[in-house]
């Protein structure tokens, strides 16, 4: 696909096919395939002052289409129709991120700058307990804020051709997706909607008064209310290092190493760590998945589902085919593996995988 983009002679101005801006919590920027057909001889030229894409460089056009055009929250459309194979979109994204990794670095810097410019009011500096009734808490990020924007999964509609070679499975307990941001001696927990849910000390860099206050961290977590702890899913920034431009395999490696090095993460109700922050298992799909599922820690139950990460996936905002999702009862049908009876508890109206996905999509469309 990248070769095809570089060999096109004209950059098409196809405003009719641009992704619609969906005014919801996830207004991330996406890729528009039809806006990327530029002559490589114009590489050093930018689009003219009238924003005429017929006169732009390959790099500029791709930058605009991935980071300027709006996408719908439930899919990275890539300006391909709904019948475009998931595998094709995966290959397109992998090719893109290989060439323009610096855009991910810029995205991380943008979040960090926003964090540094965001000051808590005096009444918010006091510690706030994690609370499910988020609407009663004192602060919410602006809608345009990127602090709470997350990488989200798609349903695994197609089994990846390279599943055993390049994919990592992560079991996810039932809980609430949360973004933890630590800086200046406090840690702030934000919901997916950008609502400030809690302020407390943590062992994250810059997350309590005893750490180096110039350091910061941004991590994605799952909050388990019944156990009052977090499971860390991913890392965007740590200390003074950006990680959005790092591959998923390395991000997971970093998380596990750091959580082994810092025992304070397991502590509870201390001056440096209010809630335990634990890591999740990363199961390579070239292993015996049936055996791996049997050996899962009972503390992870009940499970909400399983995330599957392409090991080379960079962190990006919004839904991506490089991270996919299956419910526990879908594993045997989708992957053809044997699972324990506890994983096979299907909804009463369950017919098959495709029918179930259609019902969920229909339900979600009604909410929009």
Automatic annotation (TrEMBL):
Biased composition (Low complexity): 1-10
Bias-annotated ranges (Basic and acidic residues): 11-26
Family matches, as Pfam families: SPN1_m3Gcap_bd
Domain named Snurportin-1 m3G cap-binding: residues: 149-328
UniProt keyword terms in alphabetical order: Cytoplasm, Nucleus, RNA-binding, Transport
Molecular function GO labels: RNA binding
One example of a Gene Ontology biological process annotation: snRNA import into nucleus
Record GO cellular component, one term: cytoplasm
Subcellular location: Cytoplasm; Nucleus
Superkingdom of the source species: Eukaryota
UniProt region (Disordered), positions on chain: 1-30
Presence of keyword Cytoplasm: yes
Protein role: Functions as an U snRNP-specific nuclear import adapter. Involved in the trimethylguanosine (m3G)-cap-dependent nuclear import of U snRNPs. Binds specifically to the terminal m3G-cap U snRNAs.
Homology family: Belongs to the snurportin family.
PANTHER family listed in its UniProt record: SNURPORTIN-1, SNURPORTIN1 RNUT1 PROTEIN RNA, U TRANSPORTER 1
Descriptive protein name: Snurportin-1
Name of the gene this protein is made from: LOC105427835
